[in-house]
Write a structure and sequence with these properties.
The complex is a heterodimer of chains A (about 500) and B (about 325). Helix content of chain A is about 35%, strand content about 20%. Chain A is built from 16 helices and 18 strands. Chain A has helices spanning about 1-5, 35-50, 70-80, 90-100, 110-130, 145-155, 175-190, 205-215, 245-255, 255-270, 280-295, 305, 430-435, 440-450, 460-480, 495-500; strands at about 25-30, 55-60, 100-105, 135-140, 165-170, 195-200, 230-240, 305-310, 310-315, 315, 320, 340-345, 355-360, 370-375, 395-400, 405-415, 420-430, 490. In chain A, the strands form 4 sheets. An 8-stranded mixed sheet of chain A has the order 8-12-13-7-14-15-16-17. In chain A, a hairpin with a 7-residue loop joins β16 and β17 (about 420-430). In chain A, α10 crosses α11. Chain A starts with a helix and ends in a 7-residue tail after the last helix. Chain B has about 325 residues and is α/β, with parallel strands linked by helices. In chain B, α2 crosses α9 (about 285-295), α3 runs parallel beside α4 and α5 (about 140-150) packs across α10. The radius of gyration of chain B is 22 Å and the shape is elongated. Chain B starts with a helix and ends in a 6-residue tail after the last helix. In chain B, the strands form 2 sheets. Chain B has an 8-stranded mixed sheet with strand order 9-10-11-8-12-13-14-15. Chain B has a 7-stranded mixed sheet with strand order 3-4-2-1-5-6-7, sandwiched between helices. The interface between A and B is large, with 36 and 40 residues.
Chain lengths: ~500, ~325
């Protein structure tokens, strides 16, 4: 079918705004939170914008009992809740979307239910022209992944003689290095790497993609993007929220697993990698892996000097009192789980030798902010400015959340007869620069998966390397009870140990 | 015109505003009709809000020498009776030095208008609308002649850009094995509210399928087979209402719903398929201009479609 689309002479040169690849997308865990809040709205929004393939069908596969009509009704109700006012499900466009929705009530351990799914997919191929192309999206809790994957194989759903098969795996990919390798063994026994799409929705965000544009579509940054000019790089992913309804999951995960091992290390790779030879997925992913392989994981003995952990206690966020982590629902009252993690990593390469990368992530910090701050070295010789003036180093900040943009700090003369120097900030925001809200990350990533573009998905070697980097820290932390927990108040800048690790964190 | 006064006013505004200035382009706009002018201003405001720009609007309904500066970077100059060199000089004096210039020509006809020729010289992209003034094909024919004389012109026509959802929908009808039916098309019918859109759509089909115009009602395929066509007035101006292609075995139809919100796709006959539906998402003029600015400056499909549309129109199509 792909070739048939490609050989349609009317398609030559058309702006490629829609996706022409036919596809049946199966969502395992379709009655869950991720599907209703993120995936379903992303799909419906794509449908309204005409970017979903014309030959498209959606199959829900989950434990909750629905028939097809019941699941359509469920989807419509979720869209009522989670779509903006002007995109509510209604009229012929909703009806056209709804008729493509079907559902299989399933026990993930029951092979018969996977055979029922196989029948449904064959029906979709015949009814909607989905051409044997099947996208399996694992939106379930991770422990179920292996069960689903093995049953897909047993039911003969791992490949289709007429089309392609792809599997999208939500993070976290394993809970530690060993479990990640085990999961990988399970998946690769069924699907080759070019059919595996490990999703990290952070990578679908526009500012993250813009890191590559900023670095490689400009000439002014790259010459100074190295140890000669850069003092340090800070990567922060902070939240003011607590664990909300995810206490059970979070208490077995912690900040290092939940954020640093995937989102934050991915950002590090993008900011530190060499220029890829092309924009092809594997050329970019090769460079990302090379950077990660140049990071020496800390030895167990070095963990305390290269990391800091914390757990929030009661405090105040936005003027409102909030409870401590150990008082959260589904959290052990003596929990040793960190809600704040900071690590110092060194990239041992020609470009980055001697430049520390400080990574931090935490909950119940004063505000939600994700950013990469590149701090440049101080001027080599001072001859200007009043003696009382402090000359600050230049800082380039790539802002990811909640503001999306780039800001630059530099020094300027204060107008007047004296030679006073003051820091000024040049701020570019995507909102005002292009007056447009960035498309949601999931729309971009689902579209890429249907089209077979793996650029924004993480390859196994990078996932494995990220686990190797954080494993010594995880092991030491797990095996050492921290009797100072809780060691930072909700709404504060984090634990004191983080300041000891690096006193110049950007203020949150 | 006193550019010095205008520039001084801009400087004063900039110093009052302070902070950082962001701009992506200089938009040079020429309007000659008061009624269209207000609508155009509204659309350009929308565009400039999305892509911060210096806007230089030449208003040929206002006396030369008058000027008006508003907002951060919006300049209006009276251009009634202004000659071409003066306009070009004003645009060059007031444009942002580093940003690309986009010319929006919101006036009828370009063929013999020296003002258009001069202003288009410095533009990276010229945006025109061949169905702006009336529903006939005169503006499109003028455009074809102008482009033949000036092949270097990087041009976008709003009337063509508007067709994107229809091109996609017609292409969808022939994805897969159905693409073979394209070799066997015997008749094309297009219902549209104005000629340029209909001609462009037919021109696009002809250029993709190597059909040559034979008469005001017929095209010739690469194998010499005749393809009858008809472009009929139907529906709202500047909108396509219906496209139907018939082959020996099947009929392929894309048809807008009465509200113009969706396109119903149907295939009947030997290749029959269940009906399908696509959102039209009719983009506004501001969005189309944006598309023109962001799209390739060398859109070969557009160029070929324009040439084919011009060749078909030269035979007198659409028939009255």
């Amino acid at each position: 079918m792909l070739d048939a689309v490609a050989t349609n002479p009317l398609r030559a040169g058309l702006p490629n705004e829609g996706i022409s690849t036919p596809c049946s997308a199966v969502f395992f865990g379709a009655s869950g939170d991720l599907f209703k809040r993120m995936l379903l709205p992303a799909l419906y929004s794509m449908h309204l914008r005409g970017t979903l393939p014309d030959a498209f069908a959606l199959v829900g596969f989950s434990r909750t009992a629905f028939d097809d009509d019941g699941f359509r009704d469920y989807c419509r109700k979720q869209l009522e809740l989670f779509m903006p006012q002007d995109k509510k499900p209604q009229g012929p466009l909703w009806e056209d979307f709804a008729k493509r929705i079907s559902y299989v009530t399933a026990d993930f351990t029951n092979k018969q239910h996977f055979l029922a799914l196989k029948g449904r997919l064959a029906q979709n191929d015949a009814e909607f022209g989905t051409a044997g192309n099947h996208l399996f999206y694992l939106a379930t809790p991770p422990p179920v992944f292996p069960v689903i994957i093995n049953h897909l194989k047993e039911a003969g759903l791992d490949k289709d003689p007429n089309g392609w098969t792809r599997i999208v795996v939500e993070k976290p990919f394993g809970t530690d290095l060993e479990s990640a390798r085990k999961l990988q063994q399970t998946i690769e026994a069924v699907f080759p790497e070019n059919e595996i799409y490990r999703i990290d929705h952070y990578l679908g965000k526009e500012p993250v993609q813009d890191i590559i544009a900023l670095r490689f579509a400009n000439t002014i940054f790259e010459p100074i993007w190295n140890r000669n000019y850069v003092q340090n790089i800070q990567i922060t992913s902070a939240e003011s929220l607590g664990v909300e309804e995810r206490g059970g999951y979070y208490d077995s995960a912690g900040a290092l697993r939940d954020m640093i091992q995937n989102h934050v290390i991915n950002l590090l790779a993008l900011v530190a990698m060499e220029a890829p030879i092309s924009s092809h997925a594997d050329d970019i992913r090769n460079e990302k892996y090379k950077v990660l392989s140049a990071i020496r994981p800390p030895s167990h003995g070095d963990v305390w000097s290269l990391s800091a952990r914390g757990q929030y206690g009661a405090g105040t966020i936005d003027g409102a009192a909030v409870i401590g982590y150990r008082q959260e629902h589904d959290v052990a009252p003596d929990s040793n789980t960190e809600t704040f993690a900071a690590v110092k990593l060194m990239v041992e390469s020609w470009r980055w030798a001697g430049v520390p990368f400080y990574l931090r992530s935490g909950k119940r910090l004063p505000r939600k902010v994700s950013e990469i701050a590149v701090t440049f070295k101080p001027i080599p010789h001072r001859f200007y400015g009043e003696a009382t003036d402090k000359i600050e180093p230049n800082v380039l900040v790539i802002k990811i959340e909640p503001d999306e943009g780039i800001s630059m700090r530099f020094e300027a003369k204060v107008p007047g007869p004296k030679d006073h120097i003051r820091s000024v900030y040049m701020d570019f925001s995507y909102g005002t620069g292009f007056g447009v809200v960035s498309p949601p990350a999931y729309e971009r990533l689902i579209g890429d998966a249907i089209q077979g573009d793996q650029t924004l998905f993480t390859r196994w070697d990078a996932v494995e390397r990220a686990w190797e980097i954080v494993t010594p820290v995880l092991e030491v932390w797990q095996n050492t009870k921290d009797f100072t927990f809780p060691n930072y108040a909700a709404g504060s800048q984090g634990p004191q140990s983080a300041q000891q690790l690096f006193p110049d964190w950007r203020r949150l | 015109m006193s550019f010095g006064i205008v520039l001084k006013e801009l400087d004063e505004r900039a110093s009052e505003r302070g902070g950082v200035y962001v701009a992506t382009m200089t938009l040079v706009v020429f309007v000659e009709d008061a009624a269209i002018g207000d609508l155009a201003r509204d659309r350009i405001h929308t565009l400039a809000a999305k892509h911060p720009s210096r806007v230089i609007l030449f208003d040929a309904t206002q006396s030369e020498g008058t000027h008006h500066v508003e907002g951060d970077d919006w300049i209006e100059l009276g251009a009634k009776g202004s000659n071409a060199e003066l306009l070009r000089g004003a645009a060059n004096a007031l444009r942002l030095p580093e940003a690309p210039v986009i010319l929006l020509w919101i006036a009828p006809g370009i063929g013999d208008d020296e003002r258009f020729c001069e202003l288009s010289r410095d533009a990276r992209t010229v945006v025109y609308n061949s169905s702006l003034v009336d529903a006939g094909n005169a503006a499109l024919r003028q455009l074809v002649e102008y482009v033949e004389r000036h092949p270097e012109l990087a041009l976008a026509d709003i009337a063509y850009l508007r067709l994107a959802p229809w091109q996609e929908s017609v292409a969808i009808l022939f994805d897969g094995e159905e693409s073979q039916e394209l070799l066997d098309v015997t008749r094309v019918e297009i219902g549209c509210g104005s000629d340029p859109e209909g001609l462009y759509l037919l021109g696009w089909l002809a250029s993709r399928l190597n059909w040559k115009p034979g008469s005001a009602e017929m095209l010739t395929g690469p194998d010499g087979k005749a393809i009858a066509f008809a472009i009929r007035r139907e529906g709202e101006p500047r909108r396509i209402a219906r496209v139907a292609l018939s082959s020996t075995h099947s009929n392929f139809v894309a048809e807008a719903d009465p509200h113009g919100e969706t396109i119903n796709l149907s295939v009947t006959g030997g290749r029959a398929k269940p009906p399908r539906l696509r959102a039209i998402n009719n983009p506004g003029v501001a969005a189309l201009v944006e598309r023109a600015i962001l799209s390739s400056q060398n859109d070969r499909v557009f160029q070929a479609s324009l040439a084919a549309a011009g060749a078909i129109a030269a035979f007198g199509a659409p028939s009255p």
